[in-house]
Write a structure and sequence with these properties.
With 167 residues, this protein is of the alpha/beta class. The chain is 20% helix and 34% strand. It has one domain (3-164): Purple Acid Phosphatase, chain A, domain 2 (4-Layer Sandwich). The chain starts with a strand and ends with a strand. It comes from Microbacterium mcarthurae.
Length: 167
């Protein structure tokens, strides 16, 4: 049985968008697990996603006391045999793989945010690093984005970077 995981980060509602884009809400309602790597900004975004499904999330640097009271700085879960960790910031891109290998030795996939830049790499130790970008604030990227991950029997079976239209 496969597990569908939606990866999002840096939603920044209502600062960068008034609400979650329709594509994000639709994908969240179809996902088995919703992973959010921080910078929700408003607690209502967490409430909305929790109403749509199971959420694994962390707080980010733009999240205030209410979100920090509800969410950890680092979240971990084993999903369909894959050990997943979530954190908002990983620091500079230079040296990221080495630093994350040291910080997350018992992890298969690390989901992070902060930069709004989609990222998919594998470290020397085999740790998959994923940043879904932002579905609401593309910054210097060509499009707003999210990722859809499919897990099956302890492995990543597919990963899609999905452009998100904002209205």
């Amino acid at each position: 049985m496969t597990t569908r995981v939606l990866l999002i980060a840096d939603t920044h509602v209502p600062k960068r968008a008034r609400a979650l884009p329709t594509a994000v809400r639709d994908a969240a309602s179809r996902a088995d697990v919703i992973v959010h790597a921080g910078d929700w900004v408003e607690e209502s975004v967490l409430d909305e996603l929790e109403a749509l499904g199971s959420v694994l999330g962390v707080w980010g640097n733009n999240d205030g006391p209410a979100l920090r009271a509800r969410l950890p700085e680092v979240a971990r879960a084993e999903i369909d045999g894959v050990r997943i960790a979530v954190i908002h910031e990983t620091g500079a891109a230079a040296g990221r793989e080495r630093r994350m290998d040291a910080a997350f030795p018992d992890t298969d996939v690390l989901v992070f945010g902060h930069s709004h830049i989609p990222w998919d790499s594998t470290t020397p130790a085999g740790l998959r690093l994923l940043n879904p970008g932002s579905p609401t604030d593309r910054r210097r990227q060509p499009a707003c984005t999210m990722m859809q991950l499919t897990l099956d029997a302890g492995a990543v079976r597919s990963l899609d970077l999905v452009e998100v239209e904002r209205r």
